[in-house]
Amino acid sequence: MEYRAFGNTDLTVSVVGFGAWAIGGSAMAGTTPIGWGAADDATSRAALRAAYEAGITFCDTADFYGLGHSETLIGDVFGNSDRVVIATKVGHRIAGDGSIAYDYSASHIRKACEESLRRLRREQIDLYQLHSARMAHLEQGECLEAMERLREAGLVRHWGLSLNTFAPGAEADFLLARGLGSGFQLVLNLLNRRALPVVERARHAGVGVIARMALQFGLLTGAFHAGTTFAADDHRSFRLTDEIVAKTRGLLEPFWQEVAEAGITPTQAALSWAAAVPGVSTVIPGIRTAAQAEQNALALVPEAGWVLERAASLSPEACEEIVALMQQRG
After folding, report:
1. Number of Cβ atoms within 10 Å of the Cβ of 204
2. Which of 38, 70, 173, 329 supports an S-S bond with 24, CB 3.0-4.6 Å?
3. How many whole angstroms separate alpha carbon 62 and alpha carbon 129?
């Protein structure tokens, strides 16, 4: 496992991290699934332990994943240990009517931080992230002040922002221009490359970068075909339409064949591509089982530069067409 500095902070992270959304289990906001379906807690704890044994020392979660359950499991396994770097997020909650509410008030952030610390069984959160806060929230300023106060109080070591999936630039530039925050989490994968300019600006500013959705909900593993179905409580049930799956396979199958001839799987190609982008500190595939943890820990290939070069031949127009379809799904 390779380890990298997280920007200019004192954090060191494994280049492959543990994306802990799925282990939160089934959760709903009204009729909208906000989890990845049912998860077995014993299996999830085994996955966390196997990940650590395989060299994965960075875990990313959120208080919204399983409505706190993902954090609880990480706390059960690691507690107040300095063996792992823990990042979590704040800003999403369930409203009284069951819908998703976005709350970046100082009072909510402080209360949510204390609850996350309790669930994680930690005295301090290594990286606390505003969960998809938008320009209106940043310009209002209350959430920024709240994050600074938490850092000054020692409840968090560093704070950052989990950026919007499809248009991450404005919020990133707002913080960069003011020298605020220590990390960005953003979507970066073979299809959705919209964040590449943000990664480059963050690199020059010494801001750490977490690349999420490198496998695009598993779509880039090559495992899904048109007609693949997901449980009603699985977030992917409305994200991955037959059209998106078919267009992705049509675009990537020649690339997958080419890397296969070099002994590289689609999963390895996707993770290696994201990790090889200059400025990326860590890549966080979703992990559910010990086997996935072990496989992902060994996924990066020495031929990452070659993978970057081959992926450059993918049609930007075709990639953007698929990303636009994804954006329509919300």
Report:
1. 9
2. 70
3. 9
Token pair listed for 33 = 């699934």
pTM equals 0.98
Identify the pLDDT of residue 330.
74
- Determine how many CB atoms are found less than 10 A away from the CB of residue 259: 23
- Provide the pLDDT for residue 185: 98
| Cα 48 from Cα 73, distance rounded (Å) | 9
Residue 21, SS3 per DSSP: coil
**Torsion, CA 29, CA 31, CA 37, CA 42, rounded to 10:** 50
Task: Find out whether 307 and 269 touch, Cβ atoms under 8 Å.
Answer: yes
Q: Could you state, in order of their start, the residue ranges of all structural domains in the chain?
A: 3-328
**180 has a pLDDT exceeding 90:** yes
- At residue 64, the pLDDT reads 97
Digit-coded pLDDT (tens) for 140-162? 999 999 999 999 999 999 999 99
Residue 163 and residue 172 in contact, taking contact as beta carbons nearer than 8 Å: yes
**149 to 15, 155, 306: CA distances (angstroms):** 29, 9, 45
